[in-house]
Specification:
Radius of gyration: 29 Å
Shape: elongated
Strand content: 15-25%
Largest sheet: 9 strands, mixed
Structural class: alpha+beta
Length: 665
C-alpha cells in the first residue's frame, strides 16, 4: 500500500504513526491519574465551588471577579489564574482528571514541536516526546499533575509557544509570530509568579540567532519581553507593598544559605527518578510493582521499549540534520527551562523550609522538560560515535537503550501508581463513598437548615458547600477542631452551633427540649477578606418559626476491601468536651452500606450496635438483619436502609453501629 505513495506521503504517514505511538505511551503511563483524588486546595475548596455559588445565591462571574480583586488585596498579582473557576464549576471529577491528562499530552506535543523548531529534526523531536514519561513523577506533596487545576500544564504550554514562535519570527516569519510570542509570555506571567526570569530564554534565542556581534539587534528584539517583565514585576511589588500578604508561600525571604539550598533541591527534583531515589521509594520497588499489577508494569515498560526502538532509529538517521548550532541551542534552552523556575521558588520562606532532595514544588514539572532537552543534546552528540563503534552490531545500542529505558519507565509507572493508590485510600475512596451515599439519598430525611454534626475521622471536604453541591440542602455543618481552614469554609464548632439548645450540664445538650435562643441559623453569606478565595460565614436571624429542623450526626468510614458504612442519626442528645464529640444518642437511624463482591449483590449482612441510656452509657447490644430493615434506595454500589421505629426499643448509640459481613444463609 505504501509503495504506491510518494516518498513525501510515506514520510508523513510514518511521522503520524510515530506521533500517535509516542502519545499513546505517554497516555498509558499516566492512566493512574484519572482515578487520583482531589488534592491540596482542590480537595476542600476549589472542588466545592458550585456548592458555594448555590449556597450563597451568587454566580460564577461574581465569584470570579471578586476573587481576582481579593488576590490583589492578598498581595498577589496573577489575575488570569482565575481561569480555573469554570473548570471546577462545570466539570465533575472524571472530566477534571481527563482534562489534566489531555493537557499533559498537549504539553508533550508542543514540546516535540519546540524541539523540532530548534533542531529542524522530526526524529529528535519524537525522541524528546518519547522521553517525557521519565520526568512525570508523582509525589506525596503538592503535585503538579494530580492537583492544582492544570496550572503547570497551561504555564508550560504558554512558555513553549512563546519560545517556539520567537525564533520563527527572527527567521522572517512575520510580526504575528512576535505578537503571539509576547501575548503568550504575558499570559504566563499573569497566571503564576514563578516564571518572571523566563525572558532570559528569549535573550538566549536572540543571541543564538544574531550572535554576540549584533547585541543591538538582540536588545531590540528582546525589549518587549524585558519591559513586560519589568512592568508586571513593578505591579507585583506595588501590590505586595500596599497590601497584607497572608500566604506564606509568596513571603519572600532573602537568606543566602537557605535560598541556595532550596534552589539546589528544586533543580534536583526535576531529574528523572530523583523522588524515588531520594525518598527511599526505590527500596519499595517490589511493593510498587505489586500495587500497580506486575502485568500492567511490564506492559508499560514493553510499550515504551518498542516505541523507543522505532523512534531512535528515526532520530539516529537524522543526526546529520542536527548542526552544531542546533545542539548548542538545545543545551542552552534546555538548561534555561530546567533552572529558571527555581530561583523564584527558592525565595519563598515556606519552600525553604519544606523542600527536600527529590521533593520540589510545582514548577519542577516545567523544569523536567528542560532536563529532557539537555539529555537529548547529549544523546545527539554521542549518536555518531555509537553508530561508528557498533558498525557491525548497529542494533545493540538501541536494544540496550530500549531494554534499560523500558525497565525504568515501568518502574516509574509502578511508583506513580503506588502514590495514587495510597492517596486514594485516604482521599478518593472515602469521598467517592459519601458522594454515592448522598446521591442515594442518605440526607433525604434531613430538613433544610438543620444542624449536621460530622463525626471522625475528620475530612476537609466535609463542609456546607460540599453537602449543598450534592444535595441542595443548606446545613449548619459542625466540625470538631482539626483543620485551620474549617472556619473559612463556614463550618461551626459544637458550642457555637448548639448554643441555643438546653444543656443539662456543661457540654451536654438535650434536643428533646426546644431551643431557647432568640436567633437561629438561616444560611450563609460569601465574603472576601484578602485571603485570595471566597469565605463562608453562617448567618443567623430572629426566630421565624418553631419548625423542627433537627440535629443530625453523620459518620462514615470505608475499609481496604471496599466495604463501607455511612450512618445518619437524628440525635436526641449529645455530649462534647472542648468541642470534641464524646457521646451521642439517637431515635432515628439511616444506614448506607457498600460491600464488595457478592455481598453488594445479595445483602447488607447484619447491622450491629448498642443501645444507649440517658447518661450515654451503652447497656446492651442489638443485631438487625437486613430483612428487619426498610430499604429506602439502592444505587448498584450500595444500599440505603432505615431502622424502623418498631425496632427502636431504646435510644441508639449511633457511633457503635457496624455491619457484619454475613449473608442470608
Amino acid at each position: 500500500m505504501l509503495n504506491v505513495l510518494g516518498p513525501s506521503m510515506r514520510t508523513k504517514l510514518s511521522n503520524a504513526c510515530l506521533v500517535l505511538l509516542v502519545i499513546a505511551v505517554n497516555a498509558v503511563a499516566l492512566v493512574p491519574v484519572i482515578q487520583s483524588p482531589y488534592l491540596g486546595d482542590d480537595s476542600w475548596r476549589e472542588s466545592t465551588l458550585s456548592g458555594v455559588a448555590r449556597l450563597t445565591g451568587t454566580n460564577l462571574f461574581d465569584l470570579s471577579w471578586n476573587t481576582v480583586k481579593d488576590f490583589t488585596r492578598s498581595g498577589r498579582w496573577y489575575p488570569l489564574v482565575i481561569y480555573y473557576y469554570p473548570i471546577f464549576y462545570y466539570l465533575d471529577h472524571f472530566q477534571y482528571k481527563l482534562l489534566i491528562l489531555c493537557l499533559v499530552l498537549v504539553n508533550v506535543l508542543l514540546f516535540g514541536w519546540l524541539v523540532r523548531t530548534i533542531t529542524s529534526s522530526t526524529g529528535w523531536a519524537l525522541a524528546a516526546m518519547a522521553l517525557s514519561p521519565f520526568v512525570l513523577q508523582l509525589r506525596f506533596y503538592h503535585d503538579p499533575v494530580m492537583s492544582y487545576y492544570g496550572l503547570m500544564q497551561i504555564e508550560l504550554a504558554l512558555l513553549v509557544l512563546s519560545v517556539g514562535w520567537f525564533p520563527a519570527y527572527l527567521r522572517g516569519g512575520g510580526r504575528r509570530l512576535l505578537a503571539g510570542s509576547i501575548v503568550s509570555y504575558t499570559a504566563c506571567l499573569l497566571i503564576y509568579e514563578a516564571f518572571y526570569l523566563f525572558w532570559l530564554v528569549h535573550v538566549l534565542v536572540a543571541l543564538i540567532h544574531f550572535g554576540w556581534k549584533r547585541l543591538r539587534d538582540v536588545m531590540r528584539t528582546i525589549a518587549p519581553f524585558f519591559l513586560i517583565t519589568l512592568v508586571n514585576g513593578l505591579i507585583a511589588v506595588f501590590v505586595r507593598a500596599v497590601n497584607t500578604v497572608y500566604y506564606e508561600g509568596v513571603d519572600a525571604r532573602f537568606a543566602a544559605v537557605d535560598w541556595a539550598l532550596a534552589f539546589a533541591e528544586q533543580v534536583f527534583s526535576a531529574v528523572p527518578f530523583s523522588y524515588v531515589l531520594a525518598s527511599d521509594a526505590i527500596r519499595n520497588a517490589r511493593e510498587a510493582a505489586e500495587a500497580s499489577s506486575v502485568w500492567s508494569t511490564l506492559f508499560v515498560g514493553a510499550l515504551w521499549a518498542g516505541v523507543w526502538w522505532l523512534v531512535w532509529r528515526r532520530a539516529r538517521a537524522e543526526t546529520s540534520v542536527m548542526r552544531e548550532k542546533s545542539l548548542h541551542a538545545l543545551v542552552l534552552v534546555g538548561l534555561a527551562f530546567w533552572v529558571l523556575p527555581a530561583p523564584v521558588v527558592a525565595l519563598s520562606a515556606k519552600y525553604q523550609r519544606e523542600l527536600t532532595w527529590g521533593l520540589g514544588y510545582l514548577p519542577a514539572y516545567v523544569s523536567g522538560f528542560g532536563v529532557i532537552m539537555t539529555a537529548l543534546a547529549g544523546l545527539a552528540a554521542i549518536s555518531p560515535w555509537l553508530r561508528r563503534s557498533a558498525a557491525r552490531l548497529s542494533w545493540a545500542p538501541v536494544l540496550g537503550m530500549a531494554v534499560v529505558g523500558g525497565v525504568l519507565c515501568g518502574f516509574n509507572y509502578a511508583n506513580n501508581r503506588t502514590v495514587v493508590e495510597r492517596y486514594n485510600f485516604v482521599e478518593y475512596r472515602p469521598r467517592k463513598f459519601i458522594e454515592d451515599a448522598l446521591a442515594t439519598g442518605i440526607l433525604r430525611a434531613v430538613p433544610d437548615r438543620s444542624v449536621l454534626v460530622c463525626d471522625e475521622p475528620l475530612r476537609g471536604w466535609d463542609n456546607p458547600a460540599f453537602f449543598c453541591q450534592h444535595t441542595g440542602l443548606t446545613l449548619q455543618v459542625v466540625k470538631q477542631p482539626g483543620f485551620w481552614f474549617d472556619s473559612e469554609l463556614g463550618n461551626s464548632t459544637i458550642t457555637t452551633a448548639l448554643e441555643g439548645f438546653a444543656a443539662r450540664e456543661p457540654g451536654t445538650y438535650d434536643f428533646s427540649a426546644p431551643e431557647s435562643s432568640g436567633r437561629v441559623f438561616s444560611g450563609y453569606k460569601v465574603y472576601f477578606e484578602g485571603r485570595g478565595w471566597p469565605l463562608l460565614i453562617p448567618v443567623t436571624s430572629p426566630r421565624a418559626s418553631t419548625a423542627d429542623r433537627g440535629v443530625f450526626l453523620l459518620s462514615y468510614r470505608i475499609g481496604t476491601d471496599g466495604t463501607g458504612i455511612a450512618v445518619l442519626a437524628r440525635l436526641t442528645a449529645l455530649k462534647a468536651d472542648h468541642n470534641c464529640l464524646v457521646a451521642a444518642s439517637a431515635d432515628r437511624v439511616w444506614i448506607y452500606v457498600a460491600q464488595s463482591g457478592k455481598l453488594a449483590e445479595e445483602n447488607a449482612g447484619v447491622v450491629t450496635g448498642s443501645w444507649n441510656d440517658g447518661a450515654f452509657k451503652s447497656f446492651g447490644s442489638f443485631n438487625f438483619h437486613e430483612r428487619n430493615l426498610v430499604m429506602v434506595a439502592s444505587n448498584g454500589a450500595g444500599k440505603l436502609f432505615m431502622v424502623p421505629t418498631r425496632l427502636m426499643e431504646h435510644a441508639i448509640d449511633p457511633r457503635s453501629i457496624g455491619v457484619s459481613r454475613r449473608s442470608n444463609g
